[in-house]
TrEMBL record:
Residues 127-153, 676-707 are annotated as: Disordered. Keywords: Cell inner membrane, Cell membrane, Cell shape, Cell wall biogenesis/degradation, Glycosyltransferase, Membrane, Peptidoglycan synthesis, Transferase, Transmembrane, Transmembrane helix. Pfam families: Transgly. One of its GO terms (molecular function) is pentosyltransferase activity. This is Monofunctional biosynthetic peptidoglycan transglycosylase. One of its GO terms (biological process) is regulation of cell shape. The keyword ATP-binding does not apply. The gene is mtgA. GO terms for cellular component: membrane; peptidoglycan-based cell wall. Residues 490-634 form the Glycosyl transferase family domain.
């Protein structure tokens, strides 16, 4: 028969079962047909096949053209010019595919499988916030125990319990067992279809992995499937064809090899092992496109990998042992830097294992090398119920400061081009805590060897420019950029000696209690910040000092990225090196934002209280300092007076300032009588009010803030 269309509608299992029933009936009714089906021959050519699992919005479908089927001598050959297969989130396109089946022991087995090209597109699910059970999985009939039904039943129960809030060890789903069981069933299913000496080799395999707006392309490469020592082995070698065609001696193939056991012999043989070995090879040779995952210049980026991943026999533990390197890596990532990052040289090695339910992770040895910078870490993490326990150590070996700066790609330190450093830097520390008893167990200690100094700074970054009038860009109420003039001699500039001393007292009370003790970085504030963020299990508090805030305001954008934080650190070190504490405070109070388009203490004193910085009272100064974290939020009532809750907050700040010996008894007493009024140069004075609710404030360790 030549030409024609065969269409089918219905679930895959039903279609295959009915097709086999029909085929068996045809064979039985054919004169002279033997059990092996070798008594006759069939030939179909130029067919079109169409299948959908359901009529409306099918999840699985097949469309093939140019199909040729021939059967003779117990062998069935099926070929297609083009085939499209869709299975849920995965879609496959096959060109010039060929499948040869041999009927043995009353079933068909694959003798040969090949294709000129296979293209796969897989859409990965977005990361879910928590464990979920799909209606299909929960309602699906359970298979008999020998087919893995008991395992799946237990897993569905665990996922349901976890979704209902049960965080016990038995409730956490064993995702590894689910993955392992799926791989075992797939491997054994493939093994049953393979005949003796079967040959499965597919060239021209390409793939696209998608998640949200991100895409990763791979291939073309070759795929091979074979039996080996009681296991099914799947090998994928992307880039192999391109290397052979180009004759590039500098490149070596990168091979992904997966070994899945087929028998129940020894426990160790039941491990599922994946190896990624090979390289160096260009990302472009692997099939990675410009723009994939933010990558660019992929023709110059090489990768080397010598890694093994092992899934344990019970599916509960995953182990990683290996090393790798990415050379000349270039990417665009707003989380890392505002500008493109080019020429990154990143190497890693790790020996670690962990439970796939997230209850334990042990890093026996881990290292990340970025150019000359090395970060070495060891430790373990455990999780049970509401407790997260960490014990570990970290180290950055002593390295020349300039070498550390040179290790960062230009896109990461774009603002610092031309800076030269002298000295060396190293750090070694230990971290330990249990969130169930954080105050008792939290311990973070480190020793720093730091002799870094700025030996040379480009003219455009020199602090000398801030000793005279200068122009800078600030943000307006709608986020638009506005250029303003600042510096000594400008209309809004206020010298340090013309600012009420209460203003510095206020800033030291609310923002940076250790300003005069540290050299730009407050170790105690950093520890307190980490502890409080762990307590809330989210970011609730930073550890920026006045010097760090000044560096950000003078030099950097508002964006939040790793690069901005690194540049802020180096610029803070430079400001502390070149300026006195008085000069830093003067600059800070004259450039920081106190409200929408209200920059500097001169503008703030006039805007809020119609007065000069020299005349600010204790209460007024504390109000201005208290809004620094959120300058667009105001706390005045309809009458212009500060709200009662915020007034109580200001009084608590006064008590803290007094406790730290920054104000006298008389200044405290007078301040407690103040009620700050917007637009009024003089605050209202009244007899001291009774103490308010003690829970109005939260001690943030060095600075008090309103809840």
């Amino acid at each position: 028969m030549r030409g024609g269309v065969v269409s089918a509608m219905g679930p895959r299992e039903v279609i295959l079962r009915e097709l086999e029933t029909w085929r068996a009936g045809q064979a039985a009714g054919r004169p002279g047909a033997g059990a092996g089906g070798g008594g006759g021959s069939t030939e179909l050519e130029g067919l079109k096949l169409v299948w959908n699992d359901r009529e409306s919005a099918p999840k699985e479908s097949l469309s093939a053209i140019g199909v040729r089927l021939s059967r003779a001598g117990g062998r069935t050959s099926i070929a297609a010019q083009q085939a499209m297969l869709s299975l849920g989130r995965a879609a496959f396109s096959v060109r010039d595919g060929r499948l040869v089946l041999v009927r043995e022991q009353a079933r068909y087995q694959v003798h040969e499988l090949s294709a000129a090209a296979v293209d796969a597109e897989v859409t990965l699910p977005e990361l879910a916030p928590g464990p979920q059970v799909s209606p299909e999985l929960a309602a699906r009939p359970q298979a008999p125990p020998e087919q893995g039904g008991s395992i799946r039943t237990a897993q569905v129960t665990q996922v349901k319990r976890a979704a209902e809030g049960d965080d016990s060890a038995n409730a956490r789903p064993n995702r590894g067992a689910l993955v392992r069981e799926a791989l075992l069933q797939a491997a054994r299913g493939i093994d049953l279809t393979l005949g003796e000496g079967a040959k499965v080799e597919v060239a021209g395999v390409t793939a696209r992995l998608k998640r949200g707006t991100d895409t990763l392309n791979l291939g073309p490469g070759s795929l091979a499937v074979r039996r080996e020592a009681g296991s099914l082995v799947v090998e994928l070698s992307p880039g192999e064809t391109a290397i052979a065609g180009a004759g590039a001696d500098a490149q070596q193939a990168l091979t992904f090899r997966l070994r899945v056991p087929l028998n129940d012999a020894q426990e160790t043989s039941q491990e599922i092992v994946a190896d990624v070995q090979g390289g160096p090879i260009w990302l472009s040779t692997l099939g990675v496109h410009e723009g994939d995952l933010g990558l660019f210049d992929v023709a110059r980026t090489s990768i080397v990998s010598r890694a093994r991943v092992v899934l344990s026999a019970d599916g509960r533990t995953l182990g990683v042992d290996g090393e790798g390197r990415l050379k000349n890596l270039s990417l665009r990532s707003p989380a890392l830097a505002d500008e493109p990052i080019a020429g990154l040289d990143l190497a890693w090695r790790a020996k670690a294992h962990g439970k796939l339910d997230g209850s334990k992770l042990v890093a026996e040895d881990a290292e990340i090398d970025l150019g000359s910078m090395r970060l070495i870490a060891r430790g373990e993490y455990e999780h049970s119920a509401a407790s997260h326990r960490v014990r570990g150590s970290f180290e950055v070996p002593l390295t020349a400061c300039q070498s550390l700066l040179d290790s960062a790609p230009r896109g990461v330190v774009a603002k610092l081009h031309g800076m030269r450093l002298a000295g060396s830097f190293g750090i070694k520390g230990k971290l330990r805590f249990d969130t169930a008893s954080l105050d008792r167990t939290f311990s973070l200690d480190w020793g720093v060897s730091n002799t870094c100094r700025v030996a040379e700074m480009p003219r455009e970054l020199s602090v000398d420019q801030f000793k005279r009038a200068f122009r800078r860009l600030v943000y307006g109420p709608g986020g638009q950029r506005v250029e303003i003039e600042s510096g000594p001699g400008t209309a809004e500039w206020v010298p340090y000696e013309d600012i009420s001393r209460f203003m510095e007292v206020a800033v030291l009370t609310t923002e940076d209690s250790g300003f005069h003790r540290h050299s730009g970085f407050d170790q105690e504030a950093i520890k307190n910040s980490i502890r409080e963020n762990l307590r809330k299990m989210r970011f609730v508090r930073g550890a920026s000092t006045v010097s760090m805030q000044l560096a950000k305001n003078l030099y950097l954008e508002r964006t939040k990225s790793v690069a901005r934080k690194l540049q802020e650190t180096l610029l803070t070190m430079y400001l502390e090196q070149e300026l006195t504490k008085e000069q830093i405070m003067e600059l800070y109070l004259n450039v920081v934002e106190f409200g929408p388009l209200v920059y500097g203490i001169g503008a703030a004193a006039r805007h809020y209280f119609n007065t000069t910085p020299a005349q600010l009272s204790l209460g007024q100064a504390l109000y201005i300092a208290s809004i620094l974290p959120s300058p667009s939020v105001q706390h005045f009532g309809a009458s212009g007076e500060v709200t009662p809750a915020w007034s109580e907050y200001l009084r608590k700040l006064m008590q803290i300032a007094h406790k730290r010996h920054r104000i006298s008894d008389e200044e405290l007493e007078k301040g407690l009588q103040e009620t700050v009024v917007r637009g009024s140069p003089a605050p209202h004075l009244a007899p001291r009010q009774p103490p308010g609710d003690e829970d109005v404030l939260v001690d943030e360790g060095g600075a008090w803030t309103a809840p």
